[in-house]
Amino acid sequence: MFTKEIYIQLKDNVNIVQESKVFVRDLAVILTDKDIREDVLDIEVLEIPKDDRGHIIVSVLTIMEKIVQRYPNTKLFPIGEIEILMKIEKKEKKEKKIWLLCRLIIVCTVVFVGSALALMNFHADINMQESHKQIYKMITGIDENRPLILQIPYSLGIGFGMAVFFNHILPKRFSDEPSPMEVEMASYRKSMDGYILNHQKNTEEDQ
């Protein structure tokens, strides 16, 4: 009997809604003959239980077992990672726009005040005002207590420099490169996911 070959590569991370069914297409990329590919992708792997778990770890062996049950005469070739972390999103009611707006205002206010205090404390520690006075005197020879011709461009430059550094001005980007914050968040997420995968059991071991 002719044996078909199926290559399985797990995806990086998957977000699944609570109490929903999970299929092969949600967890992995499949390479096989066209006549069975869609059917393999539609194989149900598990159903997300209704509990407080925030994630589930699924082994590639679980997926292979489900595929073999439907197609016993196949050769399976797992590629890459052997486990995948599924993050469970709870079903929640849609929040009202006014509440979302209030939360946005609160977060923006906290971030703005915190950033302003950090900058002011930094400039107070290094006595930036005195530095500006000395620079102005060196250039013009005039002793000026408030050299606004230096302070105003400097203040504007801080804001513009931060926008360039984070590669963002409102919804606009300067380039397609990720910002330092996005890189740091991606690194943090990868470390967290790696820790969970290394220290928690997969679905087979839970049963």
From TrEMBL:
The chain crosses the membrane at residues 98-120, 148-170. InterPro entries: SporV_AA (IPR021997), SporV_AA_N_sf (IPR038548). Residues 4-91 form the Stage V sporulation protein AA domain. It holds the Pfam family SporV_AA. Keywords: Membrane, Transmembrane, Transmembrane helix. This is Stage V sporulation protein AA. It comes from Marinisporobacter balticus. The lineage of its organism: Bacteria, Bacillati, Bacillota, Clostridia, Peptostreptococcales.
